[in-house]
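Lab meeting, item 3. Inverse folding demo.
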């Protein structure tokens, strides 16, 4: 196929938003969709190469895979080796074990399968996984394995275009149906992503008619660019993605590619700008290096919260990417593809086998724990210091139960007089309060639903059963005569974009409960970090640093001002009991631990040790009589 500079320019338009999104720059909240643009480009380019060869009988599967190895392996090997070495030096065993598991999966092009089982792409814990971004490489490589065989068979039956069209439509419909059952599976797995690559294939094969008119090419090119811009700016982590929401970036990329085939396309001339073209040529290296750089910077120095620090990460990522393109890609391009096929396979095995073997040993050994002192291993064990009832009692979309079937904690065979109702931030509070109530021969009911605050009528994009769950729970508590106390728990920071809606929903819940004679208790926000606290403590011990704090009290108040105002407003409007739980961890500075333990098992969820520190603050309200129906408050 003829070289198209505008396609390299489109690569730049795909990779730069991904880097900006991962650096945390707010205007590019949908930058993750740049990967969808890459998928369309890959499908278009690969099909443009192999389809004419298949039609003419010139296609060689061995040569195709050699060229893929030549393109991908040198940079991939360099990134994997860098992660292995860096992790060995700075990562405690549990963290390093996860890193090495991802090294193993990335080296075998199964990253998407591994992360499907272990990791939500948009969760905060992703910030500790330097190879999370290789999930897309897994999707592409699996496509490269199956698509040539699929196309070869289709060509034999002279139905190549029909087969690609059918595969495209089928994969898209499958993703639209599956998104409502498994967001993670739809995000990571090839059957639900294949349509994005097949869209590029359809353009290359003429399944989609080419653009003949210069005017249409102009409109299509600018429409495609506008669609990408809208995606990058308006989409966010809360967007249900991919499925039908992936149409905007993929169709946008397709329109740009189709328009660029016309010589009069102004969008093509725009994308052929030399700066964009050279960035597009380096896009693979930029993509592969940017995320490990961001993750290790965060693990060692913290994730910057200011714009200057975030732009520094972008600059560092681009610098590393261009250096990799010039040095690694420049020195190796054509070497593997120029060898006999068996020698290419042997060299590839020689490169990756030691890395894969060490990664396998690291996973089996638990992260090579002999590297570190026993105190480091002990400290990171607080990552497991969550409620012993979390797996059994905490609910999500796949583990829902009726109110009467929710877990009762405390003294067995007693009617619960307290309910802890909330999202995942109520789990450890429920366990700790349950321990305390058991000493009095009492019990509580835990009704916690992941990412679903106890706010009547508040919808959660990724929790489709949240509204009916809250409606049913509220009705059940109101009608439960044994319940006197209701502890509401919510992670305020996850609702920073819709505090007004959250406040209204919480107010509705509180009013209904109070009208039924229930005492309602809420708490103020708690401090958090950008990486999980036990691991931060363990890493500091590895590197010889002292006991860290989180931030100053003033900075904490400023960071969570919306959350404080929300609780204060609820207290003012409803007289709800507001417990200043943060005071247990914050004086002039907010601490993440004391000499006896760590307060949180990740970046913001209380550990059992931390939750037990807070039970004395709740206890006076849970022990007091509620016969008069009064509602006192605790001033922060």
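The presenter then showed the designed sequence:
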């Amino acid at each position: 196929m003829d070289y198209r500079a505008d396609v390299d320019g489109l690569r730049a338009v795909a990779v730069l938003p991904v880097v900006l999104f991962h650096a945390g720059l707010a205007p590019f909240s949908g930058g993750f969709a740049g990967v969808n643009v890459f998928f369309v480009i890959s499908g278009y380019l690969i099909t443009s190469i192999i389809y004419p060869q298949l039609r003419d009988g010139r296609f060689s599967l061995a040569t195709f895979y050699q060229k893929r190895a030549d393109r991908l392996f040198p940079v991939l090997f360099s990134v994997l080796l860098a992660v292995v070495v860096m992790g060995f030096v700075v990562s405690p065993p549990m963290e390093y074990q996860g890193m090495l598991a991802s090294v193993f999966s990335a080296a075998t092009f199964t990253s998407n399968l591994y992360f499907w089982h272990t990791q939500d792409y948009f969760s905060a814990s992703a910030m500790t996984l330097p190879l999370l971004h290789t999930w897309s490489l897994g999707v592409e490589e699996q496509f490269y394995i199956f698509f040539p065989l699929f196309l070869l068979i289709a060509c034999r039956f002279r139905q190549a275009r029909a087969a690609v069209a059918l595969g495209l439509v089928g994969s898209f419909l499958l993703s639209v149906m599956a998104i409502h059952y498994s967001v993670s599976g739809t995000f990571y797995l090839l059957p639900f992503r294949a349509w994005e690559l097949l869209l590029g294939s359809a353009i290359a094969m003429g399944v989609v008619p080419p653009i003949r008119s210069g005017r249409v090419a102009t409109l299509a090119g600018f429409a495609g660019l506008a669609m990408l811009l809208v995606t990058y700016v308006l989409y966010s982590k809360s967007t249900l993605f991919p499925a039908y929401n992936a149409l905007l970036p993929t169709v946008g990329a397709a329109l740009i590619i189709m328009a660029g085939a016309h010589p009069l396309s102004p969008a093509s001339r725009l994308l052929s700008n030399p700066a964009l073209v050279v960035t597009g040529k380096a896009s693979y290296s930029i993509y592969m290096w940017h995320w490990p750089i961001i993750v290790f910077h965060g693990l060692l120095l913290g994730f910057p919260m200011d714009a200057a620090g975030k732009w520094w990460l972008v600059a560092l990522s681009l610098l590393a990417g261009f250096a990799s393109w010039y040095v690694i890609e420049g020195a190796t391009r054509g070497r593997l593809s120029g060898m006999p096929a068996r020698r290419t396979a042997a060299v590839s095995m020689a490169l990756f086998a030691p890395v894969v073997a060490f990664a396998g040993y690291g996973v089996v050994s638990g992260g090579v724990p002999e590297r570190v002192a026993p105190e480091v291993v002990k400290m990171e064990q607080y990552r497991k210091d969550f409620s012993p009832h979390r797996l059994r009692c905490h609910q999500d979309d796949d583990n829902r139960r009726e109110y009467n079937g929710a877990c009762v904690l405390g003294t067995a065979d007693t009617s619960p007089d307290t309910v802890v109702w909330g999202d995942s931030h109520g789990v450890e509070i429920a366990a700790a309060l349950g321990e305390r109530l058991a000493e009095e021969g009492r019990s509580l009911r835990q009704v916690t639903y992941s990412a679903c605050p106890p706010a009547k009528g508040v919808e959660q994009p990724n929790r489709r059963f949240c509204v009916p769950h809250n409606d049913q729970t509220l009705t059940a508590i109101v009608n439960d005569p044994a319940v006197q106390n209701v502890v509401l728990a919510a992670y305020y920071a996850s609702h920073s974009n819709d505090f007004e809606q959250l406040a209204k929903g919480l107010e509705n819940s509180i009013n209904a409960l109070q009208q039924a004679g229930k005492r309602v208790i809420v708490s103020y926000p708690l401090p958090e970090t950008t990486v999980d606290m036990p691991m931060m403590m363990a890493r500091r011990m590895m590197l010889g640093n002292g006991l860290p704090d989180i931030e100053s009290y003033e900075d904490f108040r400023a960071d969570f001002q919306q959350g404080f105002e929300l609780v204060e407003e609820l207290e003012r409007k409803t007289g709800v009991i507001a417990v200043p739980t943060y005071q247990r961890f914050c004086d002039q500075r907010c601490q993440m631990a004391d000499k006896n333990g760590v307060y949180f098992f990740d970046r913001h969820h209380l550990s059992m040790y931390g939750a037990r520190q807070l039970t004395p603050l709740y206890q006076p309200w849970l022990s007091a009589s509620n016969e008069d129906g009064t509602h006192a408050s605790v001033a922060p």
